[in-house]
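Input chain follows. Return C-alpha cells only.
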Amino acid sequence: MRKLFLFLFILPLALVAQKKPITLEDIYKKGTFRGEFVRADFGDAAKETDIKTDDLKDENGKPFGQPEDIIYNPVNANIVLLKKSVEQIYRRSSKSFVYLYDAVAGKLTKLENEKVLHPTFSPDGSKIAYVKNNNLVMYDLATKSARAITTDGKWNEIINGNCDWVYEEEFEFTRAYDWSPKGNYIAYYRFDESKVKEYQFTQYDNAYNKQYTYKYPKAGEENSKVEIHIYDVANNKDVKAQYEQGDIYIPRIKWTKDDNTLVVFWMNRHQNDLKLLATDAKTGTSNLLYQETNKYFVEINDDWWWLKDGKNFMFTSEMSGYRHLYLYSLDGKTKTQLTKGNFEVTDVNAVDEVNKRIYYTMAYPSPMDRSLFVTDFAGKKTYQLTQGEGWHRVEFNDAFTQFYDFRSDINTPQVVSHYEIVVDKKKKSISAKLLKTVNENAKLKGKLEEYGYGKAEFIKIPNSKGDTLNGWMLKPADFDPAKKYPVLFCNYGGPGSQQVANRFGAVSSWHQLLAQKGFIVVSVDNTGTGYRGEEFKKKTYQQLGKFEIEDQIDAAKYLGNMSFVDKNNIGHWGWSYGGFMSSLAITKGNEVFSAAVAVAPVTNWRFYDNIYTERYMRTPQENPKGYDDNSPINFTDKIKGKYLIVHGTADDNVHFQNATQMITALVKSNIDFESAYYPNKNHGIGGMTDNTTFHLWSKMTNWILENMGNENTQKPNQPARQPKGF
C-alpha cells in the first residue's frame, strides 16, 4: 500500500517535470513558437478610410476580391491605389496590376493592362508615377490620362526609374525615382546597362525549360552607366544632373526641404570617396555640399536628414572611428559632432526639430545590447532613456512625447511597454516614465517552458591576435559536465554583421532543437563583424575570409580544451557569407573542424557582384592575391572531414555557379562530399506550399545528427530526449 502511495505521489511530479521535445514541424509548419504581434498604438493616429472591395468588379466583370496592398492618397483618403497579383522580381522589387479606386464614387480604374512597378502618389495627391517596361510614366487624376516621361526603356539595356540588379541588392533600394517635396519635379535614375555582361540560369519545367538572362556585373567587370534626370512636371521638361563622369556610383538621391534642390550622392568605384552635390532642379548644375573620404571605404545608408529650418542637415558617420551623429550647416560654417565615445549609434528613432532633440539607439552598455538615448542639437546634453542590458527597439509618436519599447534579451521574449517622455525643467533633465506594460508575451513564454527551452550564456573567447571575441553558447538540455558533447558553430561573420546579440531570437528554435538532441551550439562574432568600431570591422579589408576563419579556428581550439567538449566532433554551419565561412572551416580549418554544412555559399569572390565585393576587396585585377588566398575552391585538397553543400539553382544573388565550381574542385582533389540542390529556388531556398523550407531544414538537421553526433547525441528519426526540470 505504501509503495502504491509513493508511486501515485511521484507520478504527477514526473509528469510535471517532462518537457515536450521540439520538432521541425513545430518550427517550420505549425508556428508553435511565434510571438505575439503588438502595434504601437498611441491613440492619436489618423484613421485610414476603411476600403471595402467585396462588391467591386474588375475590368472583366469578375469579383475583384481583396487587394494585396493599398497605397493611400496623401490628400484624399478616399482615393487609393490597389495592388493585385503581386509578383516578386528580386529581393526588394515586385510588379503588380495597379487599380485606381475612388471609394466615394465607387469607381475602379485599371492603370495599365500589364504589371507595373513602384506606383506612388505625388505629394499633392493629383498625380501618380510608376514604372512600365523600364520607362517612367505619370498619370494625371484630373485628366485621367497617362504621359510617358521616358520612352527609351528596354529590357537588359536601358532602365528608367527602377534599379538595375546590383544597385537594388547592394545599395538596398529599388524605386529609383522620387517626387520633390511639393511635387513640382520628379528626379529619376537612368541606367544604361547595355555593356554589362549577362548571366543566365535555367528555369526548369516539364518540357524544354527556359533560360533566364539578366545583367549581373561581377567583381572587376563593367557597370551600368548612371544618369540622374530631373523632370519638370508642369513644363514637361527634363534636365540632366551635372557631376563628374567615369567609373562611379550614385548610391542615393535625396531632396532637401527646398523643392528646387536635389542632393546627388556621388561615389568613386573604390567607394572610399563620397561627395554630396546640391543640384539645381531647373538647370542640373551643382555645388559640393559635403565630402567624406576613408582609407578603407565609406558606408552608404539612409541616415541623412535635411532640417525644416533650411539651414542644417544631420547624418551619421564613422569618421571618429565609431558610428556617431553629426549636425552640419548647409553653408559649411558649423560642424558639430552630437554623439561621442567608443560605442556606436545603430538607429535614429526620431528627430524633434521643435525642441531640438534627437532620439537614437546605441549599442550600449555592450556591443550586444541596444539602448535608447536623447541628445540636444548642441551635442552637450545626453540622457539614457532605457536602462540595463538587453535589446530595446522603440517607436515614437508623431509629437515625440511618447514611445513604445519592445524589449527582449537572449533568453527572454519581447515585452512591450508604453513610455512617456518627461522633461524636468528645474533639473534640466529628460527621462522616460512607464505608463503601462502592454504585452508580456505570456503565451510564448508558456511554450518555452512547456518545451524546455535552454538558457544560452554569453562567452568571451581570446583569439591569437590579442582580441577578445563575443560569443554565445547553448548547452544540451540534459547537460552533464562529466560527458563530452559535439559542438556546432553557427556563423555568418560578414562585414558589419552581428549574430551575438542580447535579443530574443539570436538563439533560434532550431538551435534549441539541436541542443535537445545533445549538441552544444555556439556562435562567435569574428573580426570584421559590427558595432565594435571601424578598425575591428574593417580589418578584413582586401582579404575577406582570412581573419574571419582564423578567429573561428581559434574559437574551436579554445572550446576544444573544455572538459565537456568532444574536440574531435566540432562542426560549422552557415548560409551565404556563412556558407563561405563553413567552406573555409572544412578546408583551412581542417585540423579542428570535422564537418561543415555550407548553404548557398560564395566559394570565390570573383563570382560575386562588384559593388559588394570591391567595397571590401577592390578588383581582382588590383588584388588577385586577396581573392585567391582565401577562396575555399583553392584549398579543397586539405579537407579531412565531412562536407555538405546546398544551393538553389535559380539563385540570382550568389549564383549556383559557386556550388558547381566548388564541386569541380572537390572532384579534382578526389574529396568525398554530399550535395543538395533545389530547382528554381533563389538565395532564400524557401517555400511553404511546395514543402521546400521543411525539406531543407530536415535535410540539414538529419545530416548534422548523422555526421556530427557522438554517443551523447541522438541519431536521425530517433525520438527526442525528454528534457527534465521543474
